[in-house]
């Protein structure tokens, strides 16, 4: 059943009303954190905030 929904590995689980929704994860957990920490160390807040 998971293959039918293109769910291979990681999932997001959320509650909507009375339903539990399971969907493929858009990205891997903590993806991009290392780069964001490096930006924070350099004090470049504008770039860190996506600006």
Question: Helices and strands in order, then pairings?
Answer:
Layout: E1 11-16, E2 19-24, H1 33-42, H2 45-48
Antiparallel strand pairs: 1-2
Describe the structure.
It is a single chain. The model has no long low-confidence stretch (mean pLDDT 78). The protein has 51 residues and is α+β, with helices and mostly antiparallel strands. 0% of the residues are buried. A two-stranded antiparallel sheet has the order 1-2. A hairpin with a 2-residue loop joins strand 1 (11-16) and strand 2. The longest helix is centred in the C-terminal third of the chain and has 10 residues, at 33-42. It is built from two helices and two strands; from the N terminus they run ββαα.
Rg calculated over all Cα atoms:
16 Å
Distance between the ends: 41 Å
Mean pLDDT: 78
Work out the strand percent.
15-25%
- Figure out the total of helices: 2
Give the biggest beta sheet.
Answer: 2 strands, antiparallel
Secondary structure category? alpha+beta
Shape: elongated
Number of strands: 2
């Amino acid at each position: 059943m998971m293959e039918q929904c293109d769910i291979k590995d990681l999932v997001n689980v959320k509650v909507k009303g009375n339903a539990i929704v399971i969907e493929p994860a858009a990205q891997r957990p903590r993806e991009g954190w290392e780069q964001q920490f490096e930006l924070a160390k350099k004090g470049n807040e504008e770039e860190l905030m996506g600006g």
